[in-house]
């Protein structure tokens, strides 16, 4: 799993380097994007680990189906939060022009 994460991170960095070389983003934006991704990955991993005890408690007391539904709702909330955070960060980049 760790290797897969490292490979994905490197692919992300390589993609950003290509965007910078094409002039789509600046070097500063590239640095901001890499830092943002690293920070968000750490936060998401911590949040996911924190969900495990509650999921197990719910599975034991309410059943796996109810626990899975709760976990799905938590995942949706996390995804929406991360998406909003990513939009704010991308909109703050120097080379991004926000439409009307």
How many domains make up the 3D coordinates?
1
Largest sheet: none
Element order: H for helix, E for strand: HHH
Mean pLDDT: 88
How far is the first residue's CA from the last residue's CA?
A: 41 Å
Helical proportion, percent range: over 70%
Globular, elongated, flat, extended or rod-shaped: what is the shape?
elongated
Give the number of helices. 3
Strand content: under 5%
Low-confidence stretches: none
Question: Roughly how many Å is the radius of gyration?
Answer: 18 Å
What class, by secondary structure content?
Answer: mainly alpha
Q: Using DSSP, what is the number of strands?
A: 0
Explain this structure.
This protein has 100 residues and is mainly α. It has one domain. The chain is 84% helix and 0% strand.
Main attributes of the structure:
single chain, 100 residues, mainly alpha, 84% helix
Fold topology:
Blueprint: H1 2-21, H2 27-62, H3 64-91
Short description:
With 100 residues, the chain is an all-alpha fold. It has helices at residues 2-21, 27-62, 64-91.
């Amino acid at each position: 799993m760790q290797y897969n994460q490292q490979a994905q991170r490197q692919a992300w960095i390589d993609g950003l380097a290509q965007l910078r070389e094409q002039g789509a983003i600046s070097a500063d934006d590239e640095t901001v994007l890499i830092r943002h991704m690293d920070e968000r990955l750490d936060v998401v991993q911590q949040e996911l680990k924190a969900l495990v005890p509650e999921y197990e408690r719910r599975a034991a007391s309410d059943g796996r189906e109810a626990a899975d539904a709760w976990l799905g709702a938590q995942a949706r909330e996390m995804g929406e939060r991360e998406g909003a955070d990513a939009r704010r960060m991308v909109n703050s980049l120097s080379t991004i022009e926000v439409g009307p």
